[in-house]
Specification:
Elements (H helix, E strand, L loop, with lengths): L20 E2 L5 E2 L1 E6 L6 H14 L3 E4 L4 H4 L9 H12 L3 E5 L7 H6 L26 H18 L5 E5 L14 H15 L2 H8 L26 H29 L5 E2 L1 E2 L10 H4 L7 E3 L8 H15 L5 E5 L18 H11 L2 E6 L25 H15 L7 E2 L4 E4 L2 H7 L11 H15 L3 E4 L10 E4 L7 H12 L3 E5 L21 H4 L1 E6 L8 E4 L9 E3 L4 E5 L4 E7 L8 E8 L2 E6 L4 H13 L16 E7 L3 E8 L5 E3 L8 E4 L3 E2 L5 E3 L4 E7 L3
Parallel strand pairs: 3-4, 3-11, 4-5, 5-6, 6-7, 8-9, 9-10, 10-11, 13-14, 13-15, 15-16, 16-23
Antiparallel strand pairs: 1-2, 12-24, 17-20, 18-19, 18-21, 21-22, 22-23, 24-25, 25-30, 26-29, 27-30, 28-29
Length: 703
């Protein structure tokens, strides 16, 4: 008997466009699966794949991501029969298909016939075929061929019962976000005309009176190619904005073909909200897809677990706290780091469930079966080289069972926290450009440090973007908010005067949306709100640090700053100095301040304190808002608590971040139903979390 086609939830539900799997009762369940690349394997392997997928509890796989050369071996030659067989086989096994448009990597025949589709670097070098993503986002030739392929696939598979979603391209911009070709130059000029309207407005925005850069014709305007010295900073910033928009426009082009031919099938593309992936403003892309998808890979280091949580949290913020799709992560080691370390026992499950805790209703891996050849043959998979008789596959099966048990979580949303950490792509792009007070500033690291400190204190927080509503947060932390347009400055002032507690840092409020300095002293747009004035920055050399003193601290000098200092002068009323510089060029001057305003406050931290220093400082910044940890003291920093809320229940995710068992004495509400996890009761009846494990508790909501 043919199993029913997986389908989205009915339109009456909040997540009606999410391609949920269905349980035996017909209700939604969490999606589980992987990228599946059957074209790498002989036909006899496919049936074994489906059998193992069913054993693991797989519900959905992404197919066809890098199949263009196989699907279209020549300009007018098509070979889709093998893909018909794959989709039929998966459907017969009860597995849905997130079908990729296969446009991520153009085939050799296309780049040979049309080398003008290849990207060009800032130095004028051609990016040649041999890897992937060797195409220009603005190439009309590439777009014509790619959309022809998209149309062919949509027409053929529009009514195939396995199809549950469309997967546009793959990791858009991972390797080709910044193209400096003539195609890009023409598109950049069009983008600038749309943004500024006139050359006079462009010249003003770019400050072209400096270095004799004034433009008198649009044809003179170029991308910031290799130059004799530092390119115009606003030109650089606008090119980053344009490059993100060019990829977004390409995403729209594929999406519109799919919506025309398959209006009932949701469309997504996989973002890469992780680590140093900064080229695409995903907060701006989120409304272009029917549901947000993300890829994430752990990079080893002291903040590896924190960064995973931060990225999953930010993905939830980008998705408007609606359920999102984890399209890729790894079962164990990857292949692209200098040293590719396998995951410890328990980490495959823990990492996966931490994404679920932050709103993912799908857990998928790259990839299903580990490749025998190619650049990613040493990247782990659900079925490793060792085969199904392996610890990795046994962990995969275990995770499938847990996700099945977590079916009640499907469709629930992350419960808002009381603290928000503001993350802004414009500030990320602009704050790290050249010709600045220091090249050592790391925007993402500063934001992550604040998040790490909150995790260490056991305080739940949401990572939000400037498009978010700040009003729901008692505390809003805005690290290195460098770009502050006038309207954002007004929003932050209204937030603080209305009872919110704003915390910001060095190099914040310094420039407007055109990268022009707000004059009159730093921090520019936020100077009046903070009640301070900085005449000159004081960046620190490598290895330099400054000690800070806090009033009433008998130890003295307990905090140490690096990277940056400011010569702060208090100018406003109701400003309290929370810490001063104990040494260095600004000894005796304020280092951390807080101004009371209206029902709230606005605090300023003028140096980089790192996660440990921020964890020492934060309790004093959170206290006016009455924000404290919900975890017992012994678990803070070792356990992460995240809450999701459904129509009739709350779901508490307790994630043991450590390699040791952690007791949770006196945790409120531990009597809830255990949906997942190996939680045990200690001798005193308290909950004990095993090492590297996750416990999920369900608490019914009282009417």
């Amino acid at each position: 008997m043919t199993p029913p086609r997986p389908s989205p939830l009915p339109p009456s539900t909040p997540a009606s466009r999410f391609p949920y799997a269905r349980g035996a009762d017909g209700g939604p369940r969490l999606v589980y699966g992987a990228d599946y690349n059957p074209e790498q394997w002989p036909r006899e392997v496919w049936e074994e794949d489906v059998r193992l997928m069913r054993e693991a509890g797989v519900t959905t796989v992404s197919v066809g991501i890098f199949s263009w050369a196989r699907l279209q071996p020549g300009p007018d030659t098509w070979e889709l029969g093998w893909l018909d067989d794959v989709l039929d086989l998966l459907h017969a096994g009860g597995i849905g298909v997130d079908l990729a448009t296969a446009t991520a990597s153009p085939p050799p025949w296309l780049t040979t016939a049309h080398p003008e589709v290849l990207p060009v670097t800032a130095a004028g070098e051609t990016v040649w075929p041999g890897a992937r993503q060797h195409w220009r986002p603005t190439s009309p030739v590439f777009r014509r061929h790619a959309l022809r392929l998209v149309r062919k696939l949509a027409e053929r598979y529009a009514d195939h019962p396995a199809l549950v979603a469309w997967h546009v391209n793959n990791e858009l911009g991972c390797h080709n976000v910044h193209d400096y070709s003539d195609d890009a130059a023409r598109a950049f000029r069009d983008w600038l005309r749309e943004r500024y309207g006139t050359l006079d407005a462009l010249n003003h925005a770019w400050g072209t009176a400096f270095w004799s850069q004034r433009y008198t014709a649009w044809e003179q305007v170029l991308p910031p190619r290799l130059a004799a010295s530092h390119p115009n900073p606003t030109q650089q910033l606008d090119f980053k904005r344009f490059s993100s928009d060019a990829l977004k426009e390409y995403l729209r082009a594929e999406r519109e073909v799919l919506r025309e031919l398959t209006p009932g099938v949701p469309v997504t593309t996989n973002f890469m909200v992780m680590g140093g992936t900064r080229g695409m403003d995903y907060a701006d892309w989120a409304d272009e897809v029917d549901f947000v998808s993300n890829d994430h890979y752990v990079v080893p280091g002291p903040q590896a677990r924190d960064e995973l949580s931060f990225s999953a949290n930010l993905t939830s913020g980008i998705a408007g706290h609606r359920p999102w799709f984890l399209m890729e992560h790894s079962t164990s080691a990857v292949n692209w780091q200098p040293v590719n370390v396998p995951k410890k026992p328990g980490e495959l499950v823990r990492d996966s469930l931490l994404h679920v805790a932050h709103g993912a209703d799908a857990v998928c891996f790259f990839q299903w079966r580990q490749s025998a050849a190619g650049a990613e043959k040493y990247h782990s998979a659900m079925v490793p080289h060792a085969g199904a008789d392996s610890e990795v596959f046994r962990s995969v099966v275990r995770l499938g069972g847990i996700l099945g048990a977590l079916a009640p979580v499907a469709g629930s949303v992350r419960e808002p926290a009381r603290v928000g950490v503001l993350f802004d792509w414009d500030s990320w792009w602009a704050a790290e450009q050249d010709s600045h007070p220091t090249s050592r500033l790391d925007y993402h690291r500063e934001a992550l440090d604040w998040y790490s400190a909150l995790l260490a204190l056991g305080v739940r927080a949401d990572v939000v973007t400037p498009r978010s509503d700040f009003g729901g947060y008692d505390v809003l932390i805005a690290p290195v908010l460098h770009v502050v347009p006038a309207e954002l400055a007004k929003d932050l002032t209204r937030y603080a005067e209305g009872g919110g507690h704003l915390v910001t840092t060095y190099f914040s409020g310094v420039v407007d949306e055109n990268d022009h300095v707000w004059l009159g002293g730093y921090p520019g747009a936020l100077r009046e709100l903070l009640g301070i004035r900085v005449e000159e920055f004081g960046p620190l050399l490598d290895g330099e640090s400054v000690a800070l003193d806090r009033p009433g601290d008998a130890a003295g000098g307990d905090l140490a700053g690096s990277v940056w200092t400011d010569r702060v002068t208090v100018t406003g009323q109701d400003v309290e100095v929370l810490a001063s510089y104990a040494d260095g060029a600004y000894a005796g001057r304020p280092a951390v301040t807080r101004r009371t305003t209206g029902g709230g406050s606005a605090a300023y931290v003028s140096t980089r304190l790192g996660p440990e220093g921020l964890a020492a400082l934060l309790p004093g910044l959170l206290a006016p808002a009455g924000v404290a940890s919900e975890l017992p003291a012994s678990a803070r920093g070792r356990v992460e608590l995240t809450v999701r809320r459904g129509a009739d229940a709350r779901f508490l995710f307790l994630v043991n971040r450590s390699d040791e068992a952690v007791p949770l004495p006196g945790l409120v509400g531990v009597s809830g139903e255990v949906l997942a996890g190996q939680a045990e009761s200690g001798a005193d009846g308290d909950l004990v979390l095993p090492p590297r494990d996750v416990t999920v508790l369900r608490h019914p909501l009282t009417p």
